[in-house]
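Structure ticket #2291
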Amino acid sequence: MSTLICFHAHPDDESIATGGTIARAVSEGHRVVLVMGTDGRHGEKPNDLAEGESLQDRRRQELENSAKVLGVSAVYWLGYHDSGMTGWPQNDEPGAFMAADVDQVAAELAEILRKESADVFTCYDWHGGYGHPDHIQIHRVGHRAAELVQESGKSLRVLESTMNRTRIVKMMKQIGGGEFDPDGPADDGNPFGTLEEEITMAVDVSDFVEAKRASIMCHASQVTDSSMFLQMTPEMFNMAFGEEFFIERGQPGGAQRGWFL
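Resolution: structure written out below.
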Protein backbone atom coordinates (compact mmCIF):
# COMPACT_ATOMS: atom_id res chain seq x y z
CA MET A 1 0.00 0.00 0.00
CA SER A 2 1.05 3.59 -0.64
CA THR A 3 1.09 6.87 1.28
CA LEU A 4 -0.71 9.83 -0.28
CA ILE A 5 -0.03 13.32 1.05
CA CYS A 6 -2.43 16.11 0.08
CA PHE A 7 -1.23 19.69 0.56
CA HIS A 8 -3.99 22.28 0.97
CA ALA A 9 -4.29 25.98 1.70
CA HIS A 10 -7.29 26.30 4.04
CA PRO A 11 -9.68 24.06 5.98
CA ASP A 12 -12.43 22.94 3.54
CA ASP A 13 -10.10 22.90 0.51
CA GLU A 14 -9.35 19.26 1.28
CA SER A 15 -13.08 18.48 1.01
CA ILE A 16 -13.89 20.41 -2.14
CA ALA A 17 -10.74 19.62 -4.14
CA THR A 18 -9.75 16.10 -3.08
CA GLY A 19 -12.39 14.72 -0.71
CA GLY A 20 -13.41 11.94 -3.08
CA THR A 21 -9.83 11.02 -3.90
CA ILE A 22 -8.95 10.79 -0.21
CA ALA A 23 -11.98 8.62 0.55
CA ARG A 24 -11.22 6.33 -2.39
CA ALA A 25 -7.57 5.96 -1.39
CA VAL A 26 -8.49 5.11 2.20
CA SER A 27 -11.09 2.57 1.04
CA GLU A 28 -8.36 0.77 -0.91
CA GLY A 29 -6.12 0.55 2.14
CA HIS A 30 -3.75 3.41 1.38
CA ARG A 31 -2.58 5.83 4.04
CA VAL A 32 -3.55 9.48 3.56
CA VAL A 33 -1.97 12.47 5.29
CA LEU A 34 -3.10 16.10 5.11
CA VAL A 35 -0.75 19.08 5.30
CA MET A 36 -2.44 22.44 5.81
CA GLY A 37 -0.67 25.65 4.84
CA THR A 38 -2.85 28.08 6.80
CA ASP A 39 -5.36 28.33 9.61
CA GLY A 40 -8.16 29.88 7.53
CA ARG A 41 -8.53 32.84 9.89
CA HIS A 42 -9.86 35.17 7.19
CA GLY A 43 -12.72 33.00 5.98
CA GLU A 44 -16.42 33.58 6.59
CA LYS A 45 -17.01 34.45 10.26
CA PRO A 46 -20.07 32.70 11.74
CA ASN A 47 -22.35 34.27 14.32
CA ASP A 48 -22.08 31.45 16.85
CA LEU A 49 -18.43 31.67 17.94
CA ALA A 50 -18.19 31.11 21.69
CA GLU A 51 -16.60 33.71 23.95
CA GLY A 52 -12.85 33.41 23.51
CA GLU A 53 -13.18 31.17 20.45
CA SER A 54 -11.44 32.42 17.32
CA LEU A 55 -12.39 31.60 13.76
CA GLN A 56 -9.12 29.73 13.33
CA ASP A 57 -9.95 27.61 16.40
CA ARG A 58 -13.30 26.71 14.88
CA ARG A 59 -11.87 25.96 11.46
CA ARG A 60 -9.12 23.81 12.90
CA GLN A 61 -11.72 21.67 14.65
CA GLU A 62 -13.82 21.50 11.49
CA LEU A 63 -10.78 20.27 9.58
CA GLU A 64 -10.07 17.61 12.19
CA ASN A 65 -13.71 16.46 11.93
CA SER A 66 -13.48 16.36 8.14
CA ALA A 67 -10.28 14.34 8.34
CA LYS A 68 -12.04 11.76 10.51
CA VAL A 69 -14.94 11.51 8.07
CA LEU A 70 -12.54 10.89 5.18
CA GLY A 71 -10.33 8.46 7.11
CA VAL A 72 -7.18 10.61 7.11
CA SER A 73 -4.38 9.13 9.23
CA ALA A 74 -2.57 12.33 10.22
CA VAL A 75 -2.88 16.10 9.87
CA TYR A 76 0.02 18.56 9.88
CA TRP A 77 -0.38 22.33 10.26
CA LEU A 78 2.42 24.51 8.91
CA GLY A 79 1.17 27.37 11.07
CA TYR A 80 0.92 30.24 8.60
CA HIS A 81 -1.86 32.82 8.53
CA ASP A 82 -4.58 32.91 5.91
CA SER A 83 -3.58 35.75 3.55
CA GLY A 84 -7.09 36.67 2.43
CA MET A 85 -7.99 37.36 -1.19
CA THR A 86 -5.83 39.36 -3.59
CA GLY A 87 -5.62 43.01 -2.55
CA TRP A 88 -6.98 42.52 0.97
CA PRO A 89 -5.12 44.31 3.81
CA GLN A 90 -4.48 40.87 5.33
CA ASN A 91 -2.02 40.21 2.49
CA ASP A 92 0.49 42.33 4.44
CA GLU A 93 -0.04 40.82 7.88
CA PRO A 94 2.97 39.24 9.61
CA GLY A 95 2.79 35.49 9.12
CA ALA A 96 0.70 35.65 5.93
CA PHE A 97 1.34 32.48 3.94
CA MET A 98 1.58 34.26 0.59
CA ALA A 99 4.62 36.24 1.83
CA ALA A 100 6.45 33.31 3.43
CA ASP A 101 9.84 32.34 2.00
CA VAL A 102 9.18 29.54 -0.48
CA ASP A 103 12.42 27.69 0.20
CA GLN A 104 11.92 27.83 3.96
CA VAL A 105 8.36 26.51 3.83
CA ALA A 106 9.33 23.92 1.23
CA ALA A 107 12.05 22.62 3.54
CA GLU A 108 9.46 22.18 6.31
CA LEU A 109 7.14 20.36 3.94
CA ALA A 110 9.92 18.18 2.54
CA GLU A 111 10.69 16.98 6.06
CA ILE A 112 7.07 15.86 6.42
CA LEU A 113 7.14 14.13 3.04
CA ARG A 114 10.27 12.23 4.06
CA LYS A 115 9.00 11.43 7.55
CA GLU A 116 5.75 10.02 6.18
CA SER A 117 7.51 8.20 3.30
CA ALA A 118 5.19 9.80 0.76
CA ASP A 119 4.69 7.94 -2.51
CA VAL A 120 2.21 10.35 -4.10
CA PHE A 121 1.83 14.06 -3.39
CA THR A 122 -0.85 16.52 -4.50
CA CYS A 123 -0.70 20.31 -4.54
CA TYR A 124 -2.48 22.83 -6.81
CA ASP A 125 -2.23 23.98 -10.41
CA TRP A 126 -0.20 27.06 -11.36
CA HIS A 127 -2.80 29.59 -10.21
CA GLY A 128 -4.40 27.57 -7.46
CA GLY A 129 -7.60 27.01 -9.39
CA TYR A 130 -8.88 30.56 -9.06
CA GLY A 131 -5.94 32.77 -8.18
CA HIS A 132 -6.17 32.91 -4.40
CA PRO A 133 -2.70 34.00 -3.16
CA ASP A 134 -2.49 31.12 -0.67
CA HIS A 135 -3.43 28.59 -3.36
CA ILE A 136 -0.72 29.94 -5.65
CA GLN A 137 1.74 29.60 -2.76
CA ILE A 138 0.66 25.97 -2.30
CA HIS A 139 1.70 25.36 -5.91
CA ARG A 140 5.08 27.05 -5.48
CA VAL A 141 5.91 25.48 -2.14
CA GLY A 142 4.57 22.08 -3.15
CA HIS A 143 6.71 21.78 -6.25
CA ARG A 144 9.82 23.05 -4.47
CA ALA A 145 9.32 20.56 -1.62
CA ALA A 146 8.88 17.74 -4.13
CA GLU A 147 12.13 18.78 -5.82
CA LEU A 148 13.96 18.64 -2.49
CA VAL A 149 12.66 15.15 -1.82
CA GLN A 150 13.46 13.94 -5.32
CA GLU A 151 16.95 15.46 -5.18
CA SER A 152 17.65 13.27 -2.16
CA GLY A 153 16.95 10.20 -4.29
CA LYS A 154 13.37 9.48 -3.19
CA SER A 155 10.78 8.66 -5.83
CA LEU A 156 7.72 10.89 -5.49
CA ARG A 157 4.81 11.20 -7.89
CA VAL A 158 3.44 14.76 -8.02
CA LEU A 159 -0.01 15.77 -9.20
CA GLU A 160 -1.71 19.16 -9.27
CA SER A 161 -5.33 19.28 -8.17
CA THR A 162 -7.38 21.45 -10.52
CA MET A 163 -10.94 22.19 -11.62
CA ASN A 164 -12.24 21.27 -15.05
CA ARG A 165 -13.38 24.58 -16.54
CA THR A 166 -14.71 22.91 -19.69
CA ARG A 167 -16.94 20.65 -17.60
CA ILE A 168 -18.09 23.49 -15.36
CA VAL A 169 -19.08 25.66 -18.35
CA LYS A 170 -21.09 22.77 -19.77
CA MET A 171 -22.80 22.13 -16.43
CA MET A 172 -23.62 25.82 -15.97
CA LYS A 173 -25.37 25.83 -19.34
CA GLN A 174 -27.41 22.78 -18.32
CA ILE A 175 -28.50 23.94 -14.89
CA GLY A 176 -28.08 27.72 -15.07
CA GLY A 177 -25.19 29.27 -13.20
CA GLY A 178 -26.55 32.68 -12.28
CA GLU A 179 -23.85 35.33 -12.42
CA PHE A 180 -20.95 32.90 -12.09
CA ASP A 181 -18.87 32.78 -15.27
CA PRO A 182 -16.02 30.20 -15.22
CA ASP A 183 -14.52 31.87 -18.30
CA GLY A 184 -14.46 35.26 -16.62
CA PRO A 185 -11.59 36.61 -14.52
CA ALA A 186 -11.01 34.87 -11.19
CA ASP A 187 -9.09 36.34 -8.25
CA ASP A 188 -5.87 36.74 -10.25
CA GLY A 189 -7.58 37.88 -13.45
CA ASN A 190 -7.28 34.50 -15.15
CA PRO A 191 -10.22 32.21 -15.97
CA PHE A 192 -11.36 29.70 -13.38
CA GLY A 193 -9.71 26.25 -13.30
CA THR A 194 -8.14 24.50 -16.30
CA LEU A 195 -9.39 23.55 -19.75
CA GLU A 196 -10.11 19.83 -20.13
CA GLU A 197 -7.54 19.53 -22.92
CA GLU A 198 -4.82 20.51 -20.42
CA ILE A 199 -5.94 18.14 -17.64
CA THR A 200 -4.10 14.83 -17.60
CA MET A 201 -6.27 12.71 -15.31
CA ALA A 202 -9.90 12.42 -14.25
CA VAL A 203 -10.26 10.31 -11.10
CA ASP A 204 -13.58 8.49 -10.72
CA VAL A 205 -14.89 9.17 -7.21
CA SER A 206 -18.57 8.58 -7.95
CA ASP A 207 -18.72 5.88 -5.26
CA PHE A 208 -17.44 8.36 -2.69
CA VAL A 209 -19.52 11.49 -3.28
CA GLU A 210 -21.45 10.97 -0.04
CA ALA A 211 -18.19 10.93 1.92
CA LYS A 212 -17.19 14.10 0.08
CA ARG A 213 -20.52 15.77 0.88
CA ALA A 214 -20.20 14.76 4.55
CA SER A 215 -16.69 16.18 4.61
CA ILE A 216 -17.89 19.50 3.16
CA MET A 217 -20.67 19.61 5.77
CA CYS A 218 -18.05 19.46 8.53
CA HIS A 219 -17.06 23.01 7.56
CA ALA A 220 -20.27 24.59 8.80
CA SER A 221 -18.64 27.94 9.55
CA GLN A 222 -18.04 28.43 5.83
CA VAL A 223 -21.63 27.82 4.82
CA THR A 224 -21.64 30.92 2.60
CA ASP A 225 -18.82 29.44 0.54
CA SER A 226 -20.11 25.87 0.50
CA SER A 227 -23.90 26.34 0.50
CA MET A 228 -24.07 26.08 -3.29
CA PHE A 229 -22.63 22.57 -3.07
CA LEU A 230 -24.86 21.47 -0.21
CA GLN A 231 -28.04 22.71 -1.90
CA MET A 232 -27.42 20.52 -4.94
CA THR A 233 -29.63 17.49 -5.45
CA PRO A 234 -27.78 14.16 -5.17
CA GLU A 235 -27.89 13.83 -8.96
CA MET A 236 -26.47 17.32 -9.48
CA PHE A 237 -23.83 16.81 -6.79
CA ASN A 238 -22.70 13.59 -8.44
CA MET A 239 -22.55 15.37 -11.81
CA ALA A 240 -20.39 18.10 -10.31
CA PHE A 241 -18.19 15.99 -8.06
CA GLY A 242 -18.24 12.44 -9.40
CA GLU A 243 -14.77 13.07 -10.80
CA GLU A 244 -11.78 14.96 -9.45
CA PHE A 245 -9.15 16.35 -11.79
CA PHE A 246 -5.37 16.43 -11.77
CA ILE A 247 -2.44 17.57 -13.88
CA GLU A 248 0.75 15.51 -13.97
CA ARG A 249 3.59 17.22 -15.76
CA GLY A 250 4.74 15.49 -18.92
CA GLN A 251 1.53 13.50 -19.39
CA PRO A 252 -1.00 13.97 -22.24
CA GLY A 253 -4.10 16.09 -21.73
CA GLY A 254 -7.73 15.28 -22.35
CA ALA A 255 -8.77 14.35 -18.80
CA GLN A 256 -8.75 10.61 -19.41
CA ARG A 257 -9.97 8.40 -16.56
CA GLY A 258 -7.09 7.16 -14.42
CA TRP A 259 -5.83 6.50 -10.92
CA PHE A 260 -2.47 7.12 -9.31
CA LEU A 261 -2.47 4.60 -6.46
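Closing remark: The radius of gyration is 17 Å.
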